[in-house]
Amino acid sequence: AWLNFVVSSKARAKIRQLLKNLKRDDSVSLGRRLLNHALGGSRKLAEIPPESIQRELERMKLATLDDLLAEIGLGNAMSVVVAKNQQGEQQTQPGHGHLPIKGADGVLITFAKCCRPIPGDPIIAHVSPGKGLVIHHESCRNIRGYQKEPEKFMAVEWDKETEQEFITEIKVDMFNHQGALANLTAAINTTTSNIQSLNTEEKDGRVYSAFIRLTARDRVHLANIMRKIR
After folding, report:
1. How far is CA 225 from each of CA 195, 212, 229, rounded to the nearest angstrom?
2. Domain 166-229: CATH architecture, name and number where available
3. Which backbone phi and psi does 139 adopt, to 5 degrees?
4. Which pTM was predicted?
5. Where's the ACT domain (predicted)?
6. What is the per-residue pLDDT for 140?
7. Which helix (H) or strand (E) element contains residue 220?
8. Residue pair 213/167 in contact by the 8 Å Cβ criterion
9. Strands 166-175 and 132-137
10. Share of the chain residues as helix, strand and coil, in percent rounded to the nearest 5
11. What is the pLDDT of residues 42-59, one digit of tens each?
12. 63-99 burial by CB neighbour count: b if 16+ within 10 A, else e?
C-alpha cells in the first residue's frame, strides 16, 4: 500500500524491482544453504565442477547457478535431488506406480515413525544420513520450531497419484464385553486395511483401550476406517 504514496510511476517501478531483487537474493541465499546441507560432508557447492552444474541447469532449463539456487530457495526444486545428481549417484526408477513424494525420483525416502504421516497430512522433510529424505507430519513434536531452521528442512508435497499404502496408528476405547475385539477387527477388515499389530490396555473394569497399527492409503481411507469402527 505504501507504494501508492510514490507519485512517479518510474519510481514505483524501481521500488518494485528492488523488492523483487531482495526476494530473489533471499531465495538464492536460502537455496545455497539448503544445497550445501543436502550435499553433506562429501563436498560443497564450490567444489562441484562447472560442467556438472551446467548439465543440471540444462536439465532444469535454467540459465545460471543463481537461478537454480533461487528455485531451491523458493521450494520449486528439491535440494536433495540436485545434490544427488551432483554427487554422481545413479538415480533408481521405481519398478511401477508413483513415488509418494512429488519430485523425489531416485531419492531414498523414510517416513518418520514418531508421527507416521499419510497422504493428506501436511508434511515437512529433512535429510538424514542413511535415511535419505525423512518425512514428518508438520505438527510432529520432534521437529517443533522447524521454521527457525529453514536450512535444515524443506517443503515437500504428496504425489496425488501414489498407490502406496502407509502404516498409521489409532487408539480405540471400547467397553469390555465378549466379542468386542472380534467385532473391531472385523470392521477394520471390511475397509481393505491390514492390521499390523494390536495391543490392549485396561483402563478400568468396564473400558479398555486398543492400540492398533494398520495400513491406510490416505486420510480419506483412514476416515472411512474410523467410521466403520464407530
Report:
1. 11, 12, 6
2. 2-Layer Sandwich (3.30)
3. -95, 10
4. 0.60
5. 169-230
6. 94
7. helix 219-229
8. yes
9. unpaired
10. 40, 20, 40
11. 568 888 888 888 988 988
12. eebbbbbbbbbbbebbbbbbbbbbeeeeeeeeeeeeb
